[in-house]
Amino acid sequence: MSEFSPLVFSGVQPTGNLHLGNYLGAIRKFVALQASRNCIYCVVDLHAMTAQLVHEDLEDQTRAITAAFLAAGIDPKAHIVFNQSRVPQHAELAWIFNCVARIGWMNRMTQFKDKAGKDRENASLGLLAYPSLMAADILVYRATHVPVGDDQKQHLELTRDIAQKFNSDFSARIAKLSLGVEMMVGEERVNGYFPLTEPLIEGPAPRVMSLRDGTKKMSKSDVSDLSRINLTDDADTISKKIRKAKTDPEPLPGDVEGLAGRPEADNLVGIYAALSDRSKEEVIAEFGGRQFSAFKPALSELAVSVLSPISVQMRRLLDDPAYIDGVLADGGERAGAIAEKTMKDVRAIIGLLA
Ligand code: AMP
Ligand code: TRP
Question: For 111-130, how does the pLDDT look when each residue is reduced to its tens digit (9 = 90+)?
Answer without folding.
Answer: 999 999 999 999 999 999 99
